[in-house]
Amino acid sequence: MINIKTGRVAMTHGSGGRATAELIRSIFAKHFSNEWLDQRHDGAVLPPITNPVAVSCDAHVVKPLFFPGGDIGRLAVAGTVNDVSVCGAKPLWLAASFILEEGLPFEVLDRVCASMAATAKEAGVAIVTGDTKVVDRGLADGLYISTAGIGEKITSRTIAGTEAKPGDVVIVTGTMGDHGTAILSEREGMSFGTTIESDAAPLNAVVAAVLEAAPDTHVLRDPTRGGLATTLNEIATESNTGILLDEALIPVKPEVKAACEFLGLDPLYVANEGKLIVICPEAQAEAALAAIRTSPYGRDAAVVGRVTEENAGFVEMTTLMGGRRGVDWLTGEQLPRIC
Amino acid sequence: MINIKTGRVAMTHGSGGRATAELIRSIFAKHFSNEWLDQRHDGAVLPPITNPVAVSCDAHVVKPLFFPGGDIGRLAVAGTVNDVSVCGAKPLWLAASFILEEGLPFEVLDRVCASMAATAKEAGVAIVTGDTKVVDRGLADGLYISTAGIGEKITSRTIAGTEAKPGDVVIVTGTMGDHGTAILSEREGMSFGTTIESDAAPLNAVVAAVLEAAPDTHVLRDPTRGGLATTLNEIATESNTGILLDEALIPVKPEVKAACEFLGLDPLYVANEGKLIVICPEAQAEAALAAIRTSPYGRDAAVVGRVTEENAGFVEMTTLMGGRRGVDWLTGEQLPRIC
C-alpha cells in the first residue's frame, strides 16, 4: 500500500499494473470519488446533453506548483471551468490527465488532488475520468496536469469574440495582473510589502449571473496568458471592431502595480486566472456589473472601455496623461510557465 | 512567421501572445482545421448529444516519439478513440493539449500533427479544441500530448468489466504484445529478424461492428499498459468471476515471442494499442468473430478463454504443457513510458 506521508512516485506507478491501481485507490479515488469516476472503466458513461455542448482543454505546467492564492490543482480545475463557461456554457464534467515525475512525494500529489477536489466542489463539477503517466526523474518539474472540460450551453446566443459590436461596453470583473505577478514574485522570492495572491478561481457562477442579468452579452473571455491586452486584440481581430480602453478605469492593485514596475512588466499583459472580460450592449452594462459584484470574485468589476467602429482590428487606450496610444498583442515571452 | 523546416519551439510560443497565435496558425490549424476548431474560441461549441455521453482521457509520454508502426500522434488519437469506444460508444470529438519542450524542431511537431490528423480522419473524429504550453529545455523529452475524447453510446447495454458472466467467451481481436515489444526493440536498438511494428490503431469501427453482430456483448476493453493479463484481472475483480485462458489459443507473432524471450518479458503483460478484448455470450461468439475479422485490424481474432463461476476474482491459464497456472496482475514496472 501507498504511504502518503513518506512515499514517492516510482516508474512502476505508471505501468498500469497493481501499483497504478494502488495509486488510483489511495489518492485519486479518495479525493475525486463520484458515481461516474467510480465506474472505474477506461472512460465514464454520463447522461445525455440536450443543449449544445461546449468543450475545452488545457495543459498546466505552472512553476512553482504551490503559490500564494493557489496551486497547480486549483489552477487546472478553475482554468478549464472558466474556458467552458466563457462559451456561454455551464461546465458539468472534467477529465484530468496527470504526468508525474519519478520521485514526486505522494504528499505533494495528495495536496494537489485535495485542492482540485475542493475547487471542483466549489464549481459544482465532477472529475469523471482520468489517466496517470510517470516520466523519469528530471523530466516534468514534479507534475503536469491536463484537464478537459465538458459543459452545456445556457444561452441560445453565440458568445464569441466575433460578436463584439460597436457601442458595446467592455467590463472586467476585477483587478488585472494578479495571477502572473503572484507567480513571478513567488518564483523570484520577492516581496512588495504585502503578499500578492493569485486570483485563480472558478467563474462559472459569475458567468451564469451575467447571462441572466445581461442576456444580450456578446463576448465572454478570461484574459489568461497574454493578459487583457492580448485577449482584447484577439477580440478586435475576430469581430473586426476597434476597442478603446480608458487607462484610468482599469483596476490594478497597488502592490501588483509596484511589483510590475519593479519587474519591468505591464499589468495589461500579465495573466489573470480569476477574471472575465464581458462585452455587452451599453443598455445592459449596469445590470451586468451589478450581477458580477454580487460574487466575491467580482467586487472590483468596472467598465474599462468600449467597442468602436473606427480603428477596426486594433486596441487603443486613453492614457492617464490624456493621450492615446495603441495597445498591441503581447510579443516576446514576458512570463514563461505561469499556468 | 514560423519556418517549419528550420525553426524550433521557443518559450515565447507558450506565452499566449503573437508567437502562440502563429504556432497555432502554422501547424495546428493547418492539420486539424474543421468547423469547430475554426471557431478559435477558448473552447468549442458543438451539437447536443442525445444519447448517453462517454468521456475518456489519456496523457501520452511515449519514448521514442516515432517508432515502427506509429508515433506519439497516432497513439494519442487512437488511444483515446479506443477508450471511448470500449464504453460501447461512438467517439465524436477530441481535445488535445500539447506540452512542448523548448528547442523542439517544428518539423517534429508538424509530423506528429500530420499523423494525428490522419488517424483522426481514419477514425472519423474531429479535433475540436486544444492548448499548447512550452517548458524549459531538458523537460518533456520533446513533447507530451494529452487527449480527451467525447462520444455517444451506441448501445443501451452497460458495457463494462462488471458485466462479465460465467459461460461467456473471451475473444481477442489479434496478436498480443506488438506495441510494447515494438517500442522496447526500437528503444534498445534491437532487431529480431524482422521489424516489429506497433499495432496502434483506432478501433471504433471494430467496436461498432461487434455491437451490431453481437448485441449482447458484456465487456469491451483495450488491453494497453499491463497487457491482456492485467486487464483480464481487472475484469475478473470487477465482475467477481473467474477467467480461464487457453495458452495455445492466444495469438502472438513469432517475432514478438522471440523478442519477449530475449528481453525477459511475457507477451501477456505487454501493451497493445490496436487490440480489443471482447467478452460475450457463447451464442454470439461466432458472429462477433466474423464481424471482427472483416476489419484489417481483426484478421487474427481468436477465442482465447472463457468466463467461469469458480475461481472468482482470478485469472488462470491452461498452459501449453497441459497444466494450469494462475495469471496475476502485472507487478513491477516491466515497460516504462510505452504510451
UniProtKB/TrEMBL annotation, chains A, B:
Show which residues constitute the signal peptide: none
Q: Which InterPro entries match?
A: HypE, PurM-like_C_dom, PurM-like_C_sf, PurM-like_N, PurM-like_N_sf
List this protein's GO terms for biological process: protein maturation
Q: Where is the PurM-like N-terminal domain?
A: 42-151
Annotated PurM-like C-terminal domain residues:
165-315
Question: From which domain of life does this come?
Answer: Bacteria
NCBIfam families linked? hypE (TIGR02124)
Family of the protein in this entry:
Belongs to the HypE family.
The name on file for this protein is: Hydrogenase expression/formation protein HypE
Which organism encodes this protein? Sutterella parvirubra YIT 11816
